[in-house]
Structure formats: C-alpha cells, structure tokens
Amino acid sequence: MIENIRLAFQGIWSHKLRSVLTMLGIIIGIAAIITIVSTIEGTNEQIKENLIGAGNNVVTVQLNKDGYPYDMTWEGIPQGVRVITEDTRKELEQIRGVEKVSLYTARQYVDQVYYQNNQFNGEVYGIDENFLNVYGYQVKSGRGFTREDLESFRKVALVDGNTISTLFGGEDPIGRSLEMKGEVFTVVGVVALSEEFAPTINSYNEYWLYADTSAGAIYLPSAVWPSVYSFDEPQSVAIQVTNTDVMTTVGKEAADLLTAKQIADTESTFDYRSQDMLEQAQQLQSMSQSTNTQLVWIASISLLVGGIGVMNIMLVSVTERTSEIGLKKAIGAKKRRIRLQFLTEAAVLTSLGGIIGVASGVGLAELISNMMQIPVSISVPAILIAVVFSTAIGVIFGLLPAVKAANMNPIEALRRN
Amino acid sequence: MAIVTLTDICKDYQQGAEPVRVLKNINLSVEQGDYIAIMGPSGSGKTTLMNLIGCLDVPTSGSYVLDGKDLKDLSDDALADIRNRYIGFVFQNFHLLPKMTAVDNVALPLLYAGVPLKERKARAEEALRAVGLEERMTFLPNQLSGGQCQRVAIARAMVTKPALLLADEPTGALDTASGKQIMDIFRQLSQEGMTILMITHEPGIAQCADKVYHILDGRLRTGEGGSTDEE
User: Between 3.40.50.300, 3.30.200.20, 3.30.70.100, 3.40.50.720, what CATH number should domain B2-223 receive?
Assistant: First the structure.
C-alpha cells in the first residue's frame, strides 16, 4: 500500500501540469465549499453573539398575552397588569447574576411625530436612567438625560443617527424642537451604540431594524411618557447580567417574579416572559443556512465535474501505461493489485486536490472576511469531511479506469509498446 | 522429468466471421534442463505458442501440463500466480519499467510473490550480480545500454527461480556483440540446469540452443540442432 502511494506520487509528479489541471476541478469545488461553510459558520457565530448580546449581555423580559409578546402600539393598555414599581425593580436587582435593571416603554411605527414638515414613523422609547447603560448606548453629541430631566418632567429627547437623517434631513438636531402628539420636545443629545458593543438584538423586529435601514428611534424620559402616550403603562424590563451563561436562567427567574407580582388575576392570559435568545439565534441561523445550503449544492456540482475529469485522465493514464500493465500481469500481478494501484493513484490525486482546495478555501474565506467585513469561522470538521470526501471521489471515479486496467489482456497489453 | 508437456494443442482466433486455426495439434515435451529454440517466420504461430506456454493465453483444445500441473480451466488470477512462480519472461523489448531502478525492476516479481522487502532487495541484488551488473544496480533503464537492459530483464526473470525461462526474440533489439553476451548468459544458465525455451527467427541465435524446432503454418516439426536453415 505504501509502495502504491509512493508510486502514485511519482506518477503525479512526473505529469505535473496534467495532474494540476486534473485536480483543478476538485480544488475549485472543495475551495468553494470550504469558503461557503466558513462564511456560514462565521455569520452564524455573529448572529448568535449579537442575539445573546456579546459585550453587554442583555436579556429582556416582556409582557406576553396568550404566549405572544404584547405590543401596546396596536393593542392598547392591558387590563389587570400593574405598573412595575421601584421596589419591584430593586427586587429584580437582587436576583443572582443581575448587573443592572432598566424599565422602559416603547411604541413602534409611531405617527403624529413631526419636525417642521417631516413626519417620523420610527420608534419611541420612554426610558429610565439605566437604559442607555444597559443597552450600551453612548451619547455622541449634546448630553444624555440628567436626574433633573427625569425628576422635573422636562420635555427633552434623545435621537439616534437614523433619526437625524430621516427626520432632520441630516442637520444637527441638538436644540431643535420635535412635536409629538402636540407636545413639544427639545432634542438634547444624539446617542449611538458604543463601538465596542455589537448591536444587541432582542427580537425579530430589532434584527431587521439593525439589518435594514430603520427609521430611527427617539428616546424620552419615562417621567414624561404619559404626556404623549398613556399613564399606568406596564413597562418592559431590560436586565444586564454579569455573563452570558446566566442569561437564560436570570431571564426566567425575572419573568416568574414579574408574573407573580404584576398580574393581579391568576387566571389571566397575561404573563411575563424572557426572550428565548437561543431559539431566536437558531431561527436566524437556519435562515442564513438555507440560502447557503443551495450554494453548497452548486459547489458540489463542481466536485462532480472534477470527479469526471479525474476519471477521464485516469482512463488516458491506463491507456498510456498499457505496456506497464501488461508486463506486471505477465510477471504475476493479480487483478486486485493492478486495480489497487490505479485506485490509489486516483485517490491520492483527488486527496491532494482536496488538501490544496481546503488551503485555498481557508485563504479565500480569510480574504473575503478582510475585504467584506464578514466574519468567518474555519470549521475543522468541515475540513476533515472535505478531505475524506475528495478521497472518496478519487475512489469512486477511479473505479472504472482501475477495473479497465485490471481486466486488460496481458498479450494485447504487451504487444502495444 | 518433463517441465512442459503439450498434447494436441490447438488455438483458434476469431478473424472476421471464420475462426482461424493458428496452432494445429501441437505436441511438445520439454524436459528439465532442456535448452530449446523454436524458429519460424512471422505469422507461423510461434508467438501464439509462446503465449500458451507462458500461460498468457489458453488453448482452444488440447492439454498443457506445466511442472506436473494440468492448467485446465484456471482463472486469470490463478494463471498470474502460475506465471509468477514457474515462468521467467525475457522479451524482445526488455519491458523494464522506465521509472524504476534496475534493482527495483528485478525485485518486482518478488513483490507479487509476497516476499518481504528486505529479502526482495537482497535477492534482486544477487540476481543482478549473476548477470554482471553489480555496478549498475541503482541505474534507471534509460541510463543503461540495450544489452544491459536485457541483462536486467534476465535477472528479473531468474529472481523467482522459475522452472522455465521463456525468451521471445531475446536478441532481436540488440547488436551482435550484446546478443552474443546474452547467449553466453543463456548458455551458462543452461549449464547450471535451467530449462530454457526461446523463440527466434535468427538461425545464428537458434544455433546456440541444444535443440531447434521449426514451426510453420501452425505445425511444429523437429529439426537438427542449429544446423537447419530458414527458408
């Protein structure tokens, strides 16, 4: 066997150009698959990191009705659900693994929000003093909310970068006045996600918000929220935890606590639930996976074509070496041995192509990662499968030429010189 | 003791619609230690006869007993085994593998016999020494002269210690001096007790053998040792 492998390398080396051209199909196929798989893995890793909040580890707990998140934008103020008090907030902070707790209210696709003649239809949040910290927002210009703002019911607002472009036409918004349902708010600052934080995505809506161009967000002090929207509105809770591992357990514990405290009626269809980050991550991953699986199929066709190329060249090689085969059979080589020799040669050829393909695929993935800012993750199992697979291609497509060689008539074979 | 016993051997080849009988009722007995030359013009069937004796082909009818073994109805692999164990081939065109050194070429039949690597190498070197090529062991065939190549081929044929050395025009591709050298080696092997069967169309070469047979139109007839002229 070792002798066969050595002979195979000798054969490949003595026909360098031909061998490289033969391997090219396999190289391209394997390289494409490795590149695609690496970028899928990388994208998935990123989605997962984003969803479970790498950097700021935020878990949100929201009011649910009948098992679905309750959205006050459409459904109004829920009956029989209390507002979360400061005492309850402190209780939440006592849960093991909790770093910080923020209470907030939110509306999506708002209307009746204007700057001059421009209408805004993004999101509006009523936030407490912890909100920016918990989500990892930084004040880019102007100032954030002060205790004064929150306690004195000042009608001030923060906006994000998207709002500047959608509502203010790119002008500096600080000091300008917004009209929200007839109330006038003064913009005091611009916020953005701190650069060291990846965006934290807690729901599909937020995912698309970050993925697509969103209309932007406006933040108000929670104290003045009722002047625009409503009183007694139960808040959502954003909890920053000490590390990623405890997110799920903390989320559940907080949700149970809130359900027990806030919902008066035990028969109610309302309850508090934490967002199951992992499940969402998996759903998003499967979306990116399914598109890329198609790409892998296309790349597999290239492997098939490569395999046929190998078969073609092996058939040529068998014909060329007719006299060698004839001699070997004459001096006592059995069919099995001849078959094995050519199978080994095909398998070594394609394995070599596979290894070169893996190397180019890894290189290509890194290049794409650098050029397009897409994260890649090189998967070791994928590499092993690729090499094994390319060897298998050699065996499969080498079979016909090998059998042809083994069944040659030694007399005919010796006569051709 | 008879090494080769051919009885009523016939061989047909399909040529177009009609089968053509190439060998007609061949009877031949080769005794241990015989040195026989078979002469015949091209198309006489001598190569077909060699292929049959060399177990590269099977007869249409008749029986072939090699070293006491009846070779009827053997599979391809079984015939390969017989060739490996009983027969040493020397071809007109040497048929050395161009990318292997002399010693590797010689060791090849031992690989198929399942001999371990170390022993293969030792026996191949010994066989090369016997044909006077101890200085050329690691040379590639294209670094050797024709005569030297044929000596490597003889070493390869002899390395398995076969019962029969089968030579097909062994000097056909060589100049006179090299041809003579090869014949000297054959003579020496014969004196050591080797059974040799050689086909040739050169009377001068046939002369070197102890017995000469003529084959014409598929029929074998005996001739005088070396003195018969080719028509």
Answer: 3.40.50.300
